Automatic annotation (TrEMBL):
Domain of life, source organism: Bacteria
Protein's UniProt keywords contain Transmembrane helix: yes
Source species: Massilia niabensis
Protein name: Uncharacterized protein
Membrane-crossing residue ranges in chain numbering: 21-40, 55-75, 87-106
Length: 118
């Protein structure tokens, strides 16, 4: 019984994996949602044939940017009190949040220049 008490707790791998990659998942979801929405708007049977509407794209972009900014702010709080023993996961969470924020801003640029579906 003493051996069982001394064993370390499991690492919770998927929780840590999600924490480190969640901003990249937000970026991927934003990318897919924007391009699916534009494709759906531009299809002949779409809900708004003709020119794609930019308001839903702007809302999705702002929500994704806000999510990445919140994740970066959360990671900043962890890193602010960090020292040389700060875990790699903390640095990865902060770095992917910044990377995803820049990626969302960059991949949304072509959406603002779409004039028509044709």
């Amino acid at each position: 019984m003493e051996l069982l008490k001394e064993l370390p707790r499991p690492e919770r791998f998927f929780r840590k994996l999600t924490r480190g990659t969640l901003p990249l998942l937000v970026w991927a979801a934003h990318f897919a949602a924007c391009y699916v929405l534009v494709a759906f708007q531009c299809s002949p049977a779409g809900f708004a044939p003709g020119n794609p509407h930019r308001l839903p794209l702007a809302v999705m972009t702002l929500v994704a940017l806000a999510a990445c900014a919140a994740l970066a702010w959360r990671a900043r709080g962890t890193l602010a009190g960090g020292d040389e023993h700060t875990a790699l996961l903390d640095w990865a969470a902060a770095g992917t949040a910044v990377l995803a924020f820049i990626g969302i801003a960059w991949t949304s640029v072509p959406l603002w220049f779409v004039e028509s579906c044709g």
